[in-house]
Amino acid sequence: MPRPTMWTPQLQETLQLACRAPSFHNSQPWQWSVGADTVELHLFPQRLVASDSSGRQALLSCGAGLDHFRVAAAAAGWTANVDRYPNPNDHKHLATIDFSPMAFVTEGHRHRAEAIRRRRTDRLPFAAPADWDTFEPVLRQITGDTVLIDVLDAQARPALQKAAALTESARLDDSTYHADMHWWTSSSDSGTGIPHSSLTSQSESDRVGIGRRFPITHHRDQRADVQADDARIVVMSTYDDTRLDVLRCGETLSAVLLAATMADLASCTLTHLTEVPAGRDIVRELTGRELPQVLIRMGCTPADEEIPPLTPRLPLADVVTVRR
Ligand SMILES: Cc1cc2nc3c(=O)[nH]c(=O)nc-3n(C[C@H](O)[C@H](O)[C@H](O)COP(=O)(O)O)c2cc1C
């Protein structure tokens, strides 16, 4: 088998899968650079969301892309060895990856890569997860000691709803935030942004209660049988707030979302609750953690439901450069 760092169809497929990673507003703030022996991951400032002034969401997104890359490489028979922040003077150079051949590609490797093709952000209400007691230990094993995990149940709902409401009102006059929201939900032709088919109507959004408020769509009410969201909420917090912590948190976010997909759980990443102090303080109180980064709603969806199209991605040519 050729080494994957050569610009082979195998590496192109690996990068295609890596770019299926979730990203803030589907901004895809990554740039991959392919050399003779290594692949580099860089933060691409031109695709930063303006309201993400610290770049935290972009780093989380790139971390998710990095983990997706590793999963896709494993399914192709390669262990991706990741050196994070290899150049201390360049904080946009997030990782350099080299490869060693794997002894055997297992069913597990293949299934995880397959989950990349099925995973999507679902903003509709969920029924309660069917077999949470089996899933939670899996979740805790994945997260290990890179991030702290807390699972919130129905009792935390009122506080989370308050956090969502306070976040909304803190942003009423935030013109940059609303301009962003408008831009990233009306640019789906360009291969970035969130298409209307992935957004919710007023009634769907009300039944979830704690989601980010995107522009409302006017489609027929979906998943009407699920009257109120009964999802578990997973909160991921970091020990510290360095770039490396946030990047690794993004990698773990990817691992958690793929594990949920493999367990037939639907998921929706939520970060609005950690973006402004009023919301973040409530999440801090609920978890007892100083640095909550990401929340994920997880639950079940009706089995016979029509699955909407996947959100678009940029063509590979826009996010990959080949170093000569
Ligand atoms: C760091 C990060 C933050 C996100 N925040 C939210 C959010 O607050 N609300 C939401 O509905 N989706 C959120 N998402 C999901 C993205 O909007 C989604 O990944 C993107 O639109 C691509 O769609 P897909 O996940 O269906 O492929 C977030 C994703 C990431 C990686």
What's the gist of this structure?
This protein is of the alpha+beta class. The protein contains ten helices and nine strands. A five-stranded mixed β-sheet has the order 3-4-2-1-9. A four-stranded antiparallel β-sheet has the order 5-6-8-7, sandwiched between helices.
SSE blueprint:
Elements: H1 9-18, E1 30-34, E2 39-43, H2 56-75, E3 78-84, E4 93-101, H3 107-118, H4 132-143, E5 148-152, H5 157-170, H6 175-184, H7 202-208, E6 232-237, H8 243-262, E7 266-270, H9 277-287, E8 292-299, H10 316-319, E9 320-322
Parallel strand pairs: 1-9
Antiparallel strand pairs: 1-2, 2-4, 3-4, 5-6, 6-8, 7-8
Helix pairs in contact: 1-2, 2-3, 2-8, 3-8, 4-8, 5-9
The protein binds flavin mononucleotide.
Describe the model:
This protein is α+β, with helices and mostly antiparallel strands. The protein folds into two domains: 9-120 and 311-322, NADH Oxidase; 132-299, NADH Oxidase (3-Layer(aba) Sandwich), CATH 3.40.109. Helix content is 37%, strand content 16%. It has ten helices and nine strands. It has helices at 9-18, 56-75, 107-118, 132-143, 157-170, 175-184, 202-208, 243-262, 277-287, 316-319; strands at residues 30-34, 39-43, 78-84, 93-101, 148-152, 232-237, 266-270, 292-299, 320-322. The protein has a five-stranded mixed β-sheet with strand order 3-4-2-1-9. Strands 5-6-8-7 form a four-stranded antiparallel β-sheet, with helices on both faces. Strand 1 and strand 2 form a beta hairpin. Helix 1 (9-18) crosses helix 2 (56-75) and helix 4 packs antiparallel against helix 8 (243-262). It is globular. The two termini are 21 Å apart. The relative contact order is 0.19. The mean pLDDT is 95. The structure holds flavin mononucleotide (FMN). Flavin mononucleotide is lined by residues 22-26, 57, 60-61, 64, 120-121, 123, 194, 211-212, 268-272, 311. This is NAD(P)H nitroreductase. GO terms for molecular function: oxidoreductase activity.
